[in-house]
Structures are given as C-alpha cells and as structure tokens.
Design a protein that fits this description.
- The mean pLDDT is 82.
- Helix 1 runs antiparallel to helix 2, helix 2 crosses helix 6 and helix 4 crosses helix 6.
- The protein has 6 helices and no strands.
- Helix content is 87%, strand content 0%.
C-alpha cells in the first residue's frame, strides 16, 4: 500500500514540476546552440537571455518544489483531504513516510534534471564532452575524491530528509496550537 501512496503522490507532484523540467531542458538546448553559433550582436543577446531564463527557471523550480512539498503534506494530511487519507487501511507512519519519500524523489529528480542540463550544455557547446569528463576523472583520481563525493551525496540526502521532517514536524505542531 505504501507503493501506491507514493505513486499517487509522485503523479500529483510531477504534474506540476515536469513542465518546468521540460522548459529548463529546452532552454539548455537553446543556450548550447547560441554558444555554439556565437553570432555577433544577436548571438550574444541570445546567450545572455537564455542564461537569465535558465537561472530564473532553476530558482522557480526550487521554490515550486518547496511549496508543493509543503502544500501536499498540509492539504493531504492536515486539512481538507486529511479525513479521507486517514480512512485508508494504512498506518499514520505509512502516510507520512509516503509524503517524505515522494518529496525526496522529486527533490532528487530536480537535482538530476539540473545535472542533465549541465551535461546537455556541455554536449552542445564547443567544449568537448569527453575532454571535460577525462579532466574531471583525472582530477578525481589524483585527489582521491571518489569516496568524498559518495560521502557528500549521502550527507546531502540525509540533510534533505532531515529538513523535510523538520518542516513536517513544524507544520504539525503549528496546526495543533490552534486547537489547544
């Protein structure tokens, strides 16, 4: 049942974030093509415009991601939809865990799309992708940064989970203060 709860949460979250992810990837293609062409006058304007739009979309994705995660928990468990959610034959732990796991997956999906944007820009722009990958790989080997990158990823996921749980706990405590 937890899998079904996560599936429906992900559908609701992806309905809103998937178009923003698509816009970000399309703007990455436009940015890479404008760097490759680098025409005089109009090309520089297109580079600046697409870069500004990319930054604005990234900020919008992060803001929308946070707002949607908070709103889905608030409405889904503490407000209108809450009475329906608590009639399901699952524990409260499963309901909260489904919200946390779906928020984590959507946040990691956002990080993946932004990473994909970087790869997309490097692949389209005049910089050779293999040269960049070789340089980064040599740097990781030379500095012995492989384990540290793994530790950083684990710490980032645990920190994200901690932040989500803190926000959810604050909302629950704040919701209880009105009644008592």
């Amino acid at each position: 049942m937890l899998g079904k709860l996560i599936k429906y949460d992900l559908k609701a979250l992806a309905k809103i974030l998937a178009p923003l992810w698509g816009v970000l990837l399309v703007m990455g293609i436009i940015f890479g093509i404008s760097i490759r062409s680098n025409l005089e006058g109009i090309g520089n304007t297109m580079i600046v415009f697409s870069l500004v739009v990319i930054v604005a979309v990234i900020v919008a994705i992060f803001v929308v991601n946070v707002i949607i995660v908070i709103q889905r928990f608030w409405k889904g468990l503490l407000q209108e939809e809450g009475y329906l959610m608590f009639t399901l034959p699952v524990t409260t732990r499963s309901l909260i865990l489904s919200k946390v796991i779906s928020a984590l997956i959507i946040s990691c999906g956002t990080a993946f799309v932004i990473s994909l944007l970087g790869v997309e820009i490097i692949a389209i722009s005049p910089v050779k992708l293999m040269d960049t990958a070789t340089y980064f790989g040599n740097w990781v080997i030379k500095v012995h940064a492989g384990p540290w990158i793994g530790y950083g990823a684990i710490i980032a996921v645990v920190s994200l989970l901690s932040s989500i749980y803190h926000v959810y706990a604050a909302m629950v405590i704040g919701q209880l203060s009105n009644g008592n």
